Each structure stands twice: as structure tokens, then as C-alpha cells.
Amino acid sequence: MPDVIHLLPDSVANQIAAGEVIQRPASAVKELLENAIDAGADEISLVIKDAGKTLIQVIDNGCGMSETDARMAFERHATSKIQEANDLFAIRTLGFRGEALASIAAIAQVELKSKRTEDELGTCINIAASQVKKQEPCAGQNGTSISIKNLFFNIPARRKFLKSNTTELRHIIDEFHRVTLVNPEIKFSFFNENRPLFTLGKANMKQRIVALMGQAYNSRLIPVSQDSDVINISGFIGKPEFARKTRGEQFFFVNGRFIKHPYLNHAVDNAYKELITGDSFPSYFIFFTIDPKEIDINIHPTKTEVNFQNNQVIYAILGSTIKQSLGKFSITPSIDFDSEPSIDFSKISLNKSASTPTIKINPDYNPFETKNNQKEFPKQKSKTTDNWEKLYPGIDLLPKSSEQDERTPAGNSISFMGVEPEDKKTSETLYQLHNRFIIATVKSGLMVINKQRAYEKILYERFLTSLESGKSSSQQLLFPSTINFSQGDLEILHEIENELKMIGFDFETFGKNTIIINGAPSGVNNSEIGDVLESIIENTKRNLKEIKIDKKINLAKSMAAKLAPRYGKTLQESELRSLIDRLFACRAPEYTPDGKPVLRIITMDELEQKF
Ligand code: ADP
Ligand code: MG
């Protein structure tokens, strides 16, 4: 028998490598942006067409390439960034594997134009499916422009695998965020379908975060900073009240590179534990600077995973740093700065086996409550005063309360977080403000309840309880109705079919795209069923696929958000009372399942200050 083993041609080997490095247009965007940064550019443009499926172009003003280098750049394992194996532990560039351009050229049509400052003319090279089509001198600006056309044109199976333009563009924007956040000193622009999507000037870190995430972040961020021998930490974390329901805004960067690190993520989550609801996630933008020899980046072709040699020490430092910041900004008094010497991380040496820093934490501490048995901390200024500004104008339209006597309303004996114990007793007289807010006098001032959110919270608890107990109330429809869904949406309905049935939906599939509804949870009108199911599908797509929250919680949340009456009718006093009682009977009535405030108290002090 003849020998059967042979070396694969480069073009095939490159295609195989491309499978790991370039999964979708966003991966190519990442590689090209990183190359531009490694080239020392301080101005980079990204141009996208058809969510990167037709065109991805990156133009930089970096160092450019010589004629020979431009050709070499597309060879596999061709790099200017490392020379020998030892260099792997001293990496200061984003690239080093010399794979990206070779991989991209194996699966797309590529045109590269590049010119160094010292050269009169630049060079232009065209490659498709690893074949050089032509290379010729060309005039042009200093720097490099690279266009990737028709990604996966020669691998139809991969091209078919790409998701909708919306999804692929979302991935590209995510990569763009990851690269631009950590390079605020570089100007970036991003054109999508010939329209500017982002234009980012030179900035500092905070300005860049705000430019990308939105103006609202200006007041949402708390700085973190910690220098130690092991690692330097800087960046920003979000105030707990702005924690999000998706994991989106969580960024770790190590030496200028975005990374994913579930272990360190846990350290952050832990620091926030008592401050946010279990189903929300704190935002963070955390930048680590560490000696490259203390980390290993070369564990995954996309270089988004990094091993730290001192994982546990870094975990402890990070957790404490975040708690310190939250504490310093009066978000949580988890460290008593008066009695506790602050932790000096500079003393932690890499050579000694480091012990986990200890922090004295009051386990009984409830951030929303001030009790005598808890340590007293300086009263923080109300974080919500700004929002109330909008409310004040309407308040003097209210009838004056003659009712000074405060009684505990019947059935309102359940304690709830966030309000001083004496404020659990609301006045007997309740007011409605423009049908949207309920106002009650309480011991320390005025309690304002957002009516729609109160409904949402109550409904959420009701649905969750029936899902958890398996006891739901369903009403059968007199005339079963049919609803059409896309194939994909129908698939999602089937994925959560059990839960939908548990909550009271009764339906069966009919044909390829249709379901017949025989029954719905009581309280859901006939005309609402389609809408409700649609929003459940939407939320499931978002939540289950991306962040894997519990199916039952997701379902209860979607139903509650959809069915809570927006403004509702004007309620009678007894109905208001019953609404409040039902709200207070909920777990943590202060917040909606998404962590938005349901009620707030304007204290007498705050009111006095207004006059
Ligand atoms: P790596 O970045 O891992 O070195 P790449 O395949 O991404 O591998 O790039 C190969 C080489 O091409 C780089 O090492 C660099 O020398 C050169 N190169 C790529 N893009 C640029 C650019 N935009 N400007 C200048 N040189 C570049
Ligand atoms: Mg590279």
C-alpha cells in the first residue's frame, strides 16, 4: 500500500486556520482594527457594508508596509511582532500569531494599499482565496487601507451560517466597543452603509466611555484605581442602581486587550452582591496593567482569554478595590474607613505566597435600611433627587392633606426593604398624580409610588409564584384563535412550551407556522394574546440566548412588563390601598424585576430644601 499522508497546501491550511480565527465579519473587524493599532495609528476608520458580508474596510495612518512586507503579511505565521518563543512572554502588541491576514485572505477577496512615510510610492496588492492576483506600486496616503470583500465567498457553507445583518452588525459594534474603549487616545470613525455610526475624537477614558455608551453614563460611573506590585487596576464601575438586566456592559482589559474572565467577573459580582437584585448585572470598564510575563495570552486563537499566574491574588485585589470604590462613593459602607486601616496592596509580593486580604464586613448590613444595630454611616445625599425635579411642579396641585394621623393599613404588615421601618405605615389618605403616581404621607416625608411599575411588580410575583408552584389559573377561550409565527419564533415557543403551559397558555401547533390558542392565563384578554406571546419571544431571544437567565423568571418578567397597564384608570381609594398592600406583600417591593425603582421617599429634609 502506498503512503497516504501528505502536507496540505497552504491555501487549505489557511482555510482551516481561518475557521478558528475568523468566525464572522466581526472577527475580521477585530483583527484589522488591532493591526491598525499595532501599526501605531492615531486615526482609524472602519467602513462596513451589508453587515461586513460585502465589505469591511479599515483605513489607518500607521507605519505602513514596504512592498515585500505587504506581500509577506499574508503568509501564515508571518509577523513582525515576535521573533522567538521567549517573546511570547513579553507581548506588548495585540497581534503576534501572524495568522489573521493569511486566514482572511484564504476566505475573502482582499485589497491592501499601504505606504510608509519614507517611501515615495506605496504598494497595492490583491489576493483572493490565498492567490495573489496582482501587486503594483500605487500612490496614496501614508498608512494602510485594507478592504475585505465577500467574506467566505469560497466557503458557501460558512457564508450560509452567518446570521441576519442586524445580528452580525451587533457583533461588529461589540468588537468596535471593545477596541475603542481601551484606546481613547486614538480617533475612530465607523461608517455603516455610507452613514457615520460612530465618530470618536481623542479623549480620556471616561469621555470615551460616555461617547460610546451615552451621555447618561456621565453620572453613572464611579472610578476605580489600585496600584500594587502584582497588578494595576484602573477604570470605572457603574453605580448599583444602574445595574443592567443583560450582561452587556462588562469589560475587562489586560494590557490594552479586551478579555473575558468569568473568574474575575465573579469577584466583581460578589462586591455588588447586596446592592443589586440577583437578576441584574453591574456595568464595569476595568483596565488591568500587568507585566506581560505574568500572563499567558496564547491560549486561544482569538486571544480573548488570558491566564493570570496569580489568579487568586488578583481576584482578591479586584474584589476589595471595587468594594473600596463603592464605599468611598457612599454606595455601600462595606469598609469602615475610620476603624479599618486601608489595605496596602503594594506590600503584596509575588515571591511570598499571598494571603487573601481581609475586610471587615458587617454581614447584617442592609444597604437600604438604617437600623440602630447597624453601623451608622454618614447619610448619603439622595441619589434620586434629580428625578424628582420633574415631579415637583405637579405636587402642589394635590389636595392638601388634613390627615396627620398615620395608621398601619390593614394587611400591610409585611416589612420591605428600602424604606425606614416607620415609613411602612402610609397615611390613610392617598392621592393620585396624573394617574401615574400614587402619593402617600409617611413618617419621614412623602412616598411616591410609580403605579405602572407597582402593577408590573405585583404581576411578576403572581406569575412567578404560579410558575414555581405549578398552580396557574387559565381561562379557556370561547372561540380558539390562530396566530402565525415565523419558523424561528415558533421554535422559541416550543423551547419554552412547558413554562408557557404552566403559566396558563393552552395551545397546539397547526401546520408549519401557525398555533391554535385554546386558553390563556386569566387576566390576559383575547386581543392581547398575540402581543403578549410576541414580547415573550423577543425577551426569550434576548435573555435566554445571550445571558441564560432562568426560563421561568424570563417568562414572568415578560408577561408582567407587557401586561402592566401603562397609566390605567383613576383608581378609587380602596383600590389604591389594595394595590399598595399587594405591592408591599411582594419580595423587595422597591424594585421592578428589572431593578427599576417602584417607589421613592422624598424626605422632609429634601422638601424643606426646596423652599
Ligand atoms: P499579527 O498581527 O499577529 O502579526 P497579522 O496576520 O494580523 O499577524 O499581520 C501580519 C503582519 O502584517 C503584522 O505583523 C504587521 O507587520 C503587518 N501588518 C498588518 N496590518 C498592518 C497595518 N495595518 N499596518 C502596518 N502593518 C500591518
Ligand atoms: Mg494581527
Folded structure, characterized:
It is built from 17 helices and 22 strands. The protein is an alpha+beta fold and 611 residues long. It folds into 3 domains: 10-200, Histidine kinase-like ATPase, C-terminal domain (Heat Shock Protein 90), CATH 3.30.565.10; 205-328, Ribosomal Protein S5, domain 2; 451-584, 2-Layer Sandwich (Ribosomal Protein S8, Chain: A, domain 1). The strands form 5 sheets. It has an 8-stranded mixed β-sheet. A 5-stranded mixed β-sheet has the order 9-10-13-11-12, sandwiched between helices. The longest helix has 19 residues, at 451-469. The radius of gyration is 29 Å and the shape is globular. Mean pLDDT is 80; it is low at 331-344 and 346-417. Adenosine-5'-diphosphate (ADP) binds next to helix 2 and helix 4.
Would you summarize the structure shown here?
The protein is an alpha+beta fold and about 600 residues long.
Structural class, from secondary structure content?
alpha+beta
- Provide the list of bound ligands, each named once: adenosine-5'-diphosphate, magnesium ion
In this structure, how is the largest beta sheet organized?
A: 8 strands, mixed
What is the overall pLDDT average?
A: 80
Total strands: the figure is 22
Number of helices: 17
Radius of gyration: 29 Å
Would you give the CATH topology of the largest domain? Heat Shock Protein 90
Q: Helicity range of the residues?
A: 25-40%
- Number of self-contained structural domains: 3
Strand order of the largest sheet: 5-4-3-6-2-1-7-8
CATH superfamily of the largest domain: Histidine kinase-like ATPase, C-terminal domain
> How far from one another are the termini?
99 Å
Specify the CATH architecture of the largest domain. 2-Layer Sandwich
